[in-house]
Amino acid sequence: MDVPTYSLAERDRRWALARELMAAEDVEALICYGEHECVEAAPFAPDAYFTNDRPGSIVIFGRDADPVQLVWSNLPVQTHLEAARRGQQMWIDPQNIRAGSVVQPGRNAAGIVEVLHEHRLEHAAVGVLGLDVVPPWHLNPIMPYTLWRDVLAELPDVTFKPVGQSFMFATICLSEEELAVLRYSAETGDAMAQAMYEAAAPGVTEAEVYAAGMAAAFRRGCQAPNMLMWSGPGFVAWGPPSWSYRPEPPRALAEGDVLLAEVFNRLGMKETQHQVAIAVGGVHPDIEAAAVIARAAYEAGLTAARVGNTFGDLAEAMQGPVRDAGSWNIHPMVHALNPFGPVCGFGNGLGQIPEARSYGRLFEMPTVGAELPLAPGMSWAFEPSAVIGGRAVNLGGTVVIGEDDPIELNPLTARLLRA
Amino acid sequence: MIEISSSTRYDQPASTVFAILTDPPSYPAWQQDVESASLTGDAPAQQGARIRQVRKVLGRQTEVALTISELIPGQQLTLATDPGIKPAIRQSWRLQPDDGGCRLDFQLNLDGVPKMAEHLARAQLSRTVPQMLDRLGTVAATR
Predict the structure, then answer these.
(1) Span B33-67, pLDDT tens digits
(2) Within this chain, do residues A58 and A149 fall inside the same structural domain, yes or no?
(3) What's the CA gap between A385 and A396, in Å, rounded?
(4) Which CATH number is A405's domain given?
(5) Rounded distance, CA A333 to CA A236, Å?
(6) Chain A residues inside the 8 Å CB shell of B119
């Protein structure tokens, strides 16, 4: 299996970005809070960005020193140690990894305070990753309240500064090594979609289609987060299959169904997304019509996905065909990947559905990050959806901004597949 | 600080191009990010006059006020934001006769973009500035 890996040159590039960010933000340290490991889609893991190791730690850059990694227990130490024994080039030296939580300094407030004291930064400005809103999952900043409360109490004269936007600007154009990793993930996503397409047939359950897709990812050594999936003759639902959170049998596909899935795949913390739409036999004309609109939106996105335009231009271009058709999008038409952040608005048409009026309040999510200029190396999830007659279709895949033209990594899923 | 320079040649004389540069209502026809532009009051285009523009700055509709800080008819036009305004914009347009037509040297200075976003803004402007000068040539050809 020819899986791309990261070199120490990539580590040095990323650490240089951290120092550039610190200089730009005029801070003397950078605290990178990463959420716990085993998170599914869109993990918030700036720690792993700088360690190339297990997510779920806190990484602190102090002035020009090598970063210190705070881990919650000995378990990350054990895996680091064994990886080094096997000849892996580890990015963080053992002496800079500190385990601890609850009763000793480590991945907690005491660990952060200890590192900042060591650098004599009690009166300094310090940048923080973890205090910003980061769509889609962290619309409330992720930093734990008690951890941050204790840091503030222990270091009252430190000026902490959220620097999430600068981190996004610094890291959103992927390096060649990162693009190689992304391409492998995208190829795997195609394999997942192909396996799902081959499995889908009347009488087959959603769970079997789901399993076929996930198995294709795992066989190629990828970490596929749980996918979103719904099926039926027509629907506007969007999310994980209901059997994944409610005890109930998975739905069996029937002739005339459409199965829609948002497939996530990840290699080395780089994520690709794949919108799988499978028509099972002859589907309702509204589904065919919605697929045509979604495809038009995808193509409009390709036209706009060029250097010189902003994310707002891209989102607007993709919403155009949907709006012109009197349709609406059930989820974002497009959003950033690697890292997440800028996201197209969605949800504007739900109020058209009579039952929706009985809900306490609806929310139309606005487009976030419209001002971001598109630049080569950015990766975007193209996921246009359209609804006709209460029947939705979504399709798409991952697209990279090229020097001249956009690079479609997944044309396979940019159309309605027919089982 | 972002600096973008671009140079191009037009078949039309400098006076024709200069007339367009000093005609703010024409800006939307050739500056893709400008939605409207006008001289404030009834003032003619002269040194010290102010131009009010509504433009898309990094995707957002923004009102920008520029002052004509330098004007030499047919040769030089410089527009700049007031001191202290962020982002600070300075546009310099220099025209020279060139074999029956003219050569335009354009320079844009942009200060105040978040430093870590400068590479993104630079990528955008390196594409949009030449497009703008091409459109200016198209407009000049119709005059």
Answers:
(1) 899 999 998 778 899 999 999 987 766 788 999 99
(2) yes
(3) 9
(4) 3.90.230.10
(5) 15
(6) 169, 173, 375
Q: Are residues A282 and A162 in the same domain?
A: no
A152 lies in the same domain as A49? yes
In sequence order, the 6+-apart residues with CB closer than 8 A to the CB of A246 are none
- The predicted complex's ipTM stands at 0.86
* Cβ-Cβ contacts under 8 Å, A313 against chain B: 59
Q: What is d(CA A299, CA A69) in angstroms, rounded to the nearest whole number? A: 44
User: Count of A–B CB contacts within 8 Å?
Assistant: 63
- Whether A374 and A319 map to the same domain: the answer is yes
**CB nearest to B58's CB, from A172, A173, A373:** A373
- Complete DSSP assignment for A104-130: SSSSSHHHHHHHHHHTT-TTSEEEEES
Q: Does A166 touch chain B (CB under 8 A)?
A: yes
CATH at residue A98: 3.40.350.10
Phi, psi (5° rounding) for residue B23? Answer: -120, 80
Contact A308 B60 (CB under 8 A): no
Predicted local distance difference test score (pLDDT) of residue A172: 97
Q: Which domains does chain B have, with CATH numbers?
A: 2-141 (3.30.530.20)
Per-residue pLDDT tens for A317-370?
999 999 999 999 999 999 999 999 999 999 889 998 999 999 999 999 999 999
CA-to-CA distance for B80 and A370, rounded, in angstroms?
A: 26
Cβ-in-10-Å burial (0-12, 13-18, 19+) of B98 comes to middle
